[in-house]
């Protein structure tokens, strides 16, 4: 294999003395495999994409956080309105005399940030962007102090991104079920497994053992339950009910609904209409 591209300090830092710089990527475009002469913190604000680091794929979205060392090789293979900040830094330029290895994790590179952590980090990064663009000594010191503040905030508000495979099986199921329920209209099992680094095959098997159905069947049943509820208790149009339940095509929704319940969506709704009218007439 050919050597990957190596990004040079001189191209990304305004001066040879400044220890930190902010490279905001709004948007981040696809970017080929590369290593760096510097270190990099990546904080994802919005959108999604496929980030590959040292040959491992990560489906990334808001709240993802990566600590990238010079020798880590990474790329952005696909992007979808991906917005992130790269906080790039050169440890040998720090002058405050701190033991930086204490503040920056060595082993674990992929983390997630809480919403609160994102808000706090964002405001420090805004200040960092301003200070690091200047060149006087005080600005360099302030930049270093702000960077310390940032890494401490990240430490306090981050959590491990890829612990799901270490969870006991029961908790893997909880995680899966709450994800299905929470994203009824858009749930995708492969994405879920990629995100949590779980084996799709093993998870399907576990799900089947415990519930007697596949995750796909469970998802379909939940969607049908929601559809019945909406048809029965709201005046929403059938097309809207279909969309809320994850069906882009309302004809296809009608086919599935009829197959599952033995009734078309409008016949199903009709029953309750008649019931309601009779009740109203009786009064
Ligand atoms: C690129 C990409 C790279 C980063 C450089 C500074 O757009 O985000 O990962 O190293 O910027
Ligand atoms: Ni990079």
From TrEMBL:
All residue ranges annotated as the HTH araC/xylS-type domain in the record: 174-271
Recorded superkingdom: Bacteria
InterPro entries: AraC-bd (IPR003313), Homeodomain-like_sf (IPR009057), HTH-like (IPR037923), HTH_AraC (IPR018060), HTH_AraC-typ_CS (IPR018062), RhaR_RhaS-like_N (IPR047220), RmlC-like_jellyroll (IPR014710), Tscrpt_reg_AraC-type_HTH (IPR020449)
Keyword annotations from UniProtKB, A to Z: Activator, Cytoplasm, DNA-binding, Repeat, Rhamnose metabolism, Transcription, Transcription regulation
NCBIfam families (alphabetical): PRK13501.1 (NF010026)
Protein name: Arabinose operon regulatory protein
UniProt source species: Erwinia aeris
